[in-house]
Amino acid sequence: MNGKLNIDILGGLSLLAIAAFFFFQLGDDFSMFALFFPERMLPALVLLGLAVIVKGFVRPTKLEKPVFRINGTMIAAVVTGLLWVILLEPVGFIITSFFSVSGLQILYMPRDQRCLKSVFVNLAGSLIIVLLFYYVFVQFLGVTLPAGVFGI
Which of 134, 126, 76 shows the shortest CA–CA distance to 102? Predict the structure, then answer.
């Protein structure tokens, strides 16, 4: 063994695991529209996972060592994700998602580009993206998202 990690096989297996997870989450409590997305996407995700695995055998992409370094930004992203999950129900999807997405955008913005204009543009973009997701999931897919104490 040469100690190199075949990231194609690992990535393909990860895609298959994600597809399996979502497949086993489907149930009768979803609306017809909420089932439409996973029922159409899961076969594509499985095919993509299998294709990446095949690529891993035919033309593998290998790394000398895994690139897993824990740093402050990674810890902040994990904490933000955990806070999003914890606060989603009591605060609501729109507010929690807006603060999470905008906070992560500002966190990952290069320090030399963090000016008032860039922050404002990112905040506006975060709001638009969150509202778009909310609209698509609620209006088109029939998914009920938490409204929280403020009703939004």
Answer: 126
